[in-house]
Design a protein that fits this description.
68 residues; 29% helix; alpha+beta
């Protein structure tokens, strides 16, 4: 596998829940740690272009971050 593992961060829990539904609809794999208070989904090695395309029609602010 190439590339760094990624995570996506949201401003609040409601945005996170809405995006979870969108990613599931587009069959994009992610994991979520219920104890994480940073409103993040773990994307692993998912192609972030697919994520950006799936989220292009929604107005939810997000940041895709590397694990460091």
């Amino acid at each position: 596998m190439g590339g760094a593992m990624k995570r996506i961060r949201f401003q609040n829990f409601n945005d996170l829940k809405a995006v979870m539904a969108i990613l599931e609809k587009h069959n994009i794999e992610f994991t979520w740690d219920i104890m994480n208070r940073n409103h993040e989904l773990h994307l692993g090695h998912v192609n972030t272009d697919h994520v950006k395309l799936a989220l292009s029609s929604c107005n939810i602010p997000y940041k895709i971050l590397d694990y460091s």
